[in-house]
Amino acid sequence: MEVIFLGTGTSQGVPMIACHCAVCTSTDPRNQRTRSCIHVVMDGLHIQVDASPEFRLQCLREKIEQMDFFILTHGHSDHIMGMDDLRRFCDLLGGTALTVYTTDEGMHRVLSIYPYAIVERPVSLGYAAFKLALMPPVLELPQGTINTLGLIFQEKSSGKKFVYYNDCKRVPREAIALAQGADVVVLDGLRVEPHPTHMNIEEACAVAAEIGAPTSYLTHLTHRIEHKEWSKKLPTGVLLAFDGLRLKL
Ligand SMILES: [Zn+2]
Ligand SMILES: [Zn+2]
Question: pTM for this one?
C-alpha cells in the first residue's frame, strides 16, 4: 500500500494570506502546507480522499495519473473545492462518471456546488461527471455541527492497515476499537490551543496513544506548528505529516 500526502494544511493553508510569522515565512518546505487530501494506492486501486482547492497542482506535483474512485470525507470547502478538476480522471477512465463515496451531508454539498456534474457520463471529453454513492459502512467522527468520514484502509494482499481520521473533534470509542492493529494512523492535530471543531496536538497525541499504532502522523496543521521544533516535542511514534510525504506500508 502507498499513501501520498497531497496536502497537510488546515483550511486557510500555510503560509496564510498576509501573515509574516516565522512559519508563514519559513523556507523549510515542510512548513508550506496546501489544504489536506491524500491519495492511496492499495492492491493496484487508486483511491483519492478529498480534493482541496490546490488539488490540480497537488496532482501535478505528485504525478497522480490514475483514479479508480473518490471519497469525500465531508463537504467543507477545503475538501470539496478541487472536485471540478476530477474531470481529467473521468477522461482517463474512458469518459465515464467517477464514483464519489460520501455521507448525506457530502452528497448535499456536491449536489449544490456541482449540479452540472451529476450525469451518467461526461457531456464531452474534459467535463466532470460524478456518480454519488453513500459510503458503506459508515464510520462518522464528530466535527462541530457535522460529521466527517473516518476511513480505514486494509490491503487484502499484504494485510496492511491504514487509518485516516482527519478533520474531527473527537474519535469515539467505536473508531478507536476499529483502528486497533493499524500500521499507520493519521489524525487531525490542528494546533496547540484547543479548538471547537478540531483536535489539538494534545488531544491527537492522546488518541494516538489509545490506538497504539507503531506510527501516527498529525495533519490539518496551522501556521502555529513549526515543523522542526514540534517534531522534537512530540511523543515517540508521533510525527508531523508534510506535503509530499509518501508512506510505503
Ligand atoms: Zn478541513
Ligand atoms: Zn503565519
Answer: 0.95
